Amino acid sequence: MNKEETVRTQKTFIRAQMIFIVVLVFLFGIYLYVKRPQSPNTPVIERNTLSISAPTNTFPYLDPDVNINLNQHYIINFAPLEKTFQSIQSNYSDKTYIYFDYLNNNLWIGSNNTTPFLAASLVKVPLAMAVLKAVEGGKFSLSQEYTLDQLNLNSSFGDLYKVGANNSFTLAQLLQIMLVNSDNTAMNALYTAMKLAGVSDPFKDIYTAMGWQFATAGKVPSYNKIDLDTLSNMFISLYEGTYDTPQDSNLILKYLDDSPFNDAIVAGVPENIGVSHKIGTDDPDLTYRDCGIVYVPQRNYLLCVGSVGANQAVANQFMADISKAAYDYVTNN
Predict the structure, then answer these.
(1) Are 178 and 157 in contact (CB under 8 A)?
(2) Which residues partner with 95 through β-bridges?
(3) What whole-number distance in Å separates Cα of residue 300 and Cα of residue 102?
(4) Last residue of a domain, which of 70, 96, 116?
(5) What is the pLDDT, as a whole number, of residue 25?
(6) How far apart are CA 245 and CA 127, in angstroms?
(7) Within 10 A of 263 (CB to CB), how many other CB atoms are there?
(8) Quick one: 54 and 92 in the same domain?
(9) For strand 117-118 and strand 225-226, is the pairing parallel, antiparallel, or unpaired?
(10) 290: domain CATH number?
(11) Using one digit for the tens of pLDDT, what is the confidence trace for 225-281?
(12) What is the pLDDT of residues 1-11, one digit of tens each?
């Protein structure tokens, strides 16, 4: 190799070294950029706020529902539905009650929703919540058996009284019978079981948590009054699994969906739509109520309705009319 070729080879080698160094510096710069500390202006995505999967991080400053496209089922304007409710109410001379809550974005409308009325069988919902809370707290288990006492038997609602005293059922069976069939004997048995387990006032904690305001100072609460605001809080708590565990809340709502009473809210929706609801009737006082969650696909809502002063047939028709109006509005907007 002559001198000229040697010089040319050395220059080529030096040039290759320089290119290698430049590439190395460039790659190291990229590494430092990726590993840089997060800017204070960069939104932090919490695991309990947004999913860390790629599709849900598109709009980190927005409601998580926007990222998973649930906002397409938001409804903002319920003024037309409120007018429809008022129009329906004007067709009935008795006192009527309405509370509607669209659960996707928690917009609600109501009429006489803070007016108290007799609770009747509606107390079975908070009692069920209290029973499962006691189970969670180790007071007893649902597999525990309870033997019916003569004082538990009540023929006003349900058929369990027909088996008579001295027959045993597990607390799980009594809970199901009470919620599905609105059975008074099962309710009395569960209430007594709570007392025997050392829960002196089975309703106190649950009613306090739900915002109940009808206690009389210096007197033992009778819990015989309730309003739609308090009642709706109970159902929303079940829907969100906040008072009882999600598993227990789901169990209560399942039993309420199995209820065979289809003359009020259920009568206003198609047969394929699930409704976890609880009726309350008091014939002597002409007081009738129905409250529950209507499971329209992607558009669940809570509806509580009631009537005081009309017979049961008229009351049921009013509640069915309101239910149909709510369903039609939610599914067509």
Answers:
(1) no
(2) 308
(3) 7
(4) 70
(5) 52
(6) 15
(7) 16
(8) no
(9) antiparallel
(10) 3.40.710.10
(11) 899 999 999 999 999 999 999 999 999 999 999 999 999 999 999 999 999 999 999
(12) 554 555 455 55
Rounded Cα distance, 256 and 101, in Å? 18
Q: Note whether residue 146 is domain-resident.
A: no
What type of residue sits at position 147? T
Judged on CB neighbours under 10 Å (0-12, 13-18, 19+), 98 is: buried
- Using only the alpha carbons of the chain, give its radius of gyration: 31
Same domain, residue pair 8 and 133: no
- When pLDDT is cut at 50, 70 and 90, the band that residue 219 belongs to is confident
Dist CA 21 CA 211 (whole Å): 71
